[in-house]
Amino acid sequence: MALLEVRGLVKRFGGLVAVNDVDLDVEAGEIRGIIGPNGAGKTTLFNLISGALKPTSGSIRFDGKIVSGSKPSHIARAGLVRTFQRNAMFPTYSVLDNVMLARHTQIKENLFKAILGTDQKDEEQALLRSREIIAFLELSAYENELAQNLSHGHQRILGIANALAVEPKLIMLDEPVAGMNPTETAVVTDHIRRLRDEWNMTVILVEHDMRTVMDTCEYISVLNFGEKLMEGIPREVAQDSRVIEAYLGSDEIEL
Questions:
Q1: By CB count within 10 A, which of 117, 184, 213, 249 is most buried?
Q2: 15: pLDDT confidence band, cut at 50, 70 and 90?
Q3: CA distances for 154 relative to 3, 135, 190, 208, angstroms
């Protein structure tokens, strides 16, 4: 059984069908890419899986349990979280406070304990874990820096740290290298690989930077007009005539 199973997923907005009969299977430990032209339904699919939108029909099963239509907080506590195209969640708080707040925002029972001051041991463990996440993503030097003062690249990495604070089994990254220079992109793609290799994380990413997708993902699903056009390993996708016509606009991506 796949960690994430999507079956017959449909989302309609009035007369517009944004996602149409999409099936998706993502195995534990996989790095999956989702690509497609603007308006292909990628963000809508992310929103459906993460609970920001409720499907018109179809089902989403995560870790063996149906999560279709569940609240985002419930899905996050089940172990499936996503990042957003916007940067850090709390721009006027420090890097460390961002990760701590992200943890408490999603794990509400811990927030109540923190407010009441009834569980100091849990707070100490949360602080240690937050610093471990920050160190893993090479942000320790900025631990006390306000999020709004970070570079664009570091803000994007902080967004990943905030998602990791919820202790996910699967993390969905929405354009993780958008607006980055090549050096920043290389750092983030290295973090993505390490998440899987060192922390056994399953990763799904939507990204327009085709080099990042082809170099990072082991399997790629292609959407077009809300439907799954095809899927396969990077070389198969790069050479598929349907993908070239719909999205790539060239004979082949150099791999």
A1: 213
A2: very high
A3: 30, 13, 14, 19
